[in-house]
Amino acid sequence: VTEPDLAGRHVVVSAGGTREPLDPVRFLGNRSSGKQGYALARTAAARGARVTLVSANAGLPDPAGVDVVRVGTAVQLREAVLKAAADADAVVMAAAVADFRPAAYAAGKIKKKDGKDPDPIILLRNPDILAEISADRARPGQVIVGFAAETDDVLANGRAKLARKGCDLLVVNEVGERKTFGAEENEAVVLGSDGTETPVPHGPKEALADTVWDLVVGRLD
Ligand code: PMT
Q1: What is the ipTM score, two decimals?
Q2: CB 143 within 8 A of CB 216
């Protein structure tokens, strides 16, 4: 039996991976399936929360009883998260957000030019949504959770990222071409800004999600 310990709370979860378009047929993207974020949304709803799920290119069915807002790019994800976070008790950023986007969008498909090298792709920096919502909380006491997808020096990079982003909790998970992305299971260490470290053993993404909500509940007033 799930405790309704999030009843009366509004939580925002981002999921999936942003796509940054180059032309009508191509984009820069990443390997996120959305499964970890959707597991967070489902478990929060099961614990009684009102849930807004900001979903980037996930291709998964809408979880029952969850408000789903679909977005494509990092800029769109930022707009949707800021809007939903205005009255939220907690925000969990599980989405894989592109740090950069192409400076130019070609209205027509980019063509090969015979015998010529391709043009380089110029990139612009995307807004850092997690750092922004952490620095400028929409309401006092709002709990903000980030994820860190790392391929090496996982914990050291995670600790540095927690300090840089300014969130309350950071879920550090290892990723690779076939690791974590798209999988049914995950394992992680949840770092707290108070110095706590909560290891979560390999298991279903729902189990990690429930541990995240346990830690969030402990921080809500
Ligand atoms: O979707 P799945 O296939 O289930 O895979 C799950 C996952 C690996 C995508 C997920 O567990 C995960 O790690 N999500 C975060 C991916 C990511 O973007 O990590 P990062 O280390 O690059 O970013 C750190 C944090 O800052 C994240 O919370 C991210 O949402 C946020 N961010 C990043 C860049 C940016 N411009 N704005 C942000 O808010």
Answers
A1: 0.99
A2: yes
Cα–Cα distance measured from residue 166 to residue 133, given in angstroms and rounded to the nearest whole number: 9
d(CA 133, CA 124): 21
Residue identifier of the C-alpha nearest atom 9 of ligand 1: 32
| Residue located via tokens 């189990």 | 207
3-state SS, residue 31? coil
Q: Which residues pair with 52 in a beta bridge?
A: 12, 67
pTM: 0.98
Q: Which of 119, 121, 70, 75 is nearest to 97 (CA)?
A: 75
Residues, the chain: 221
For residues 15 and 58, give the distance between their C-alpha atoms in angstroms, rounded to a whole number: 7
34 lines ligand 1 (CB under 6 A): yes
Report the mean per-residue pLDDT for the chain: 97
Annotated binding site for CTP: 99, 109, 127-130, 147, 161, 165
- Report the chain's terminal Cα–Cα distance, integer Å: 24
What letter does residue 163 receive in the DSSP assignment? H
